[in-house]
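FIELD: query
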Amino acid sequence: MTRIFILLIAAGIAVVGWQLAGPGGVWFRAAELEEALAQQNETNRQLRARNEELSAELYSLQHQRDAIEERARRELYMVKKDEVLFRLETPEEYEKRAAELASMPDYRSPDIKPGSRQTFAAKRGDLYHAPKNLRAPPSRGKRE
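FIELD: result
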């Protein structure tokens, strides 16, 4: 009887050991979760830094007029009156910009033949006509 009891205890210990250390066991799962947690923490750190950059940029655009001017000059290549803009590009930047410009249609001489079908249909805009669910309810009585 004690031998059967010892065998049952040994079998139970073996089953628990298998669930802990076997393939797909708890220890391997814990290691996978720790690795996933480390990756998520790194991603969160990067996103937090990006959010701080964006909030600082938003604050400067809201409170400093010079920031708007600087951004317009840098990104949109805007200049003041009687000012000349010199823009230096690397060969890679030039190739990238040339490829973007080549893919755009030429607005000065479009390939529209006389009598061709319209490219868009004119319709009422939602700017002047609100959807039915957003309209004001009709009045109950007429005013005199």
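FIELD: remark
The chain is about 60% helix and 0% strand.
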